[in-house]
Amino acid sequence: MEYTAQPRRMQSVKSNKPSSWFRVLKTHPNIRRRIFCFPHAGGAASYFKQWPEAVPEDTEFVVVQYPGREERLNHPCINNMEDMVRALFDQLTGNPHLLQIPFVIFGHSMGASIGYELILELQKAGLRLPVALVASATDAPGYANPTQFHISSDSELVEEIVRLSPSLSFLKEHEELLEMVLPALRADYQLIETYGKRNEPRPPLPIPIKKLIGDNDSELSRDDALLWKNQTSANFSLQSFPGGHFYLADHYEAVIRVFMESYKDSSTLSPSLSFQLP
């Protein structure tokens, strides 16, 4: 998959205009760093509602709210990677203050792939890059085994998400709620299942990649996770946690520590933005 977007310059005027794409779950009058979280397929900003309690005071915690869920329920879903990345790129360049301090991009499952592709677009445009990509619980670009759940029946799609996250089994008993979440879920699965081609290399990023996995994740082996090292020309690390595909539900405090270590490890910070980790 190749993008055809031409490089665009970041606006010189700070707009600070609100965006429905970014839900700020924690901020501070004098923030010095920022974390962007990109949810999994079918996920929404509320999944991360407990995380801010573990985030340092001077760090802003922002979750991307994809269209078609929660307060954006009436916004049309996006079912392909190109349009998703283009929309996110436009939102960031339209709100340039979001790129003016050091930031980390974290993506879980589908969110890791979106984060990776967005960083490529930022690089092509000559804009500020994150100090690291923290990629969780997904295959490296070009290495995923193809699936076709986005064209399966509603019941088959629900069975798949419950298999990955048994805590969602309640959806089977709430038909109205299920009808609300299925459009976004199907669009997300279409996005990730039509993303790129198997064995088609994607460019490496010039920033560190920290790969996180659950040690009992049936969707991703350790060997497959290690293929992410091909997606960076900088440092690569792999860390596993007890649990399956959604290991992070029980280990979000440790995951946030990985974010903070990314700032400490980075050599890209301007001296004027240097700080001590807590």
From TrEMBL:
Sorted UniProt keywords: Ligase
EC number: 6.3.2.-
Listed GO MF terms: ligase activity
Pfam family, one: Thioesterase
Domain Thioesterase: 34-259
UniProt record, GO biological process: lipid biosynthetic process
Keyword check for Mitochondrion: no
Superkingdom classification of source: Bacteria
EC supergroup of this enzyme: ligase
Key word Chaperone present: no
InterPro entries reported for this sequence: AB_hydrolase_fold (IPR029058), TEII (IPR012223), Thioesterase (IPR001031)
PANTHER family: S-ACYL FATTY ACID SYNTHASE THIOESTERASE, MEDIUM CHAIN (PTHR11487:SF0), THIOESTERASE (PTHR11487)
Family: Belongs to the thioesterase family.
Protein name: Phenyloxazoline synthase MbtB
Name of the coding gene: mbtB_2
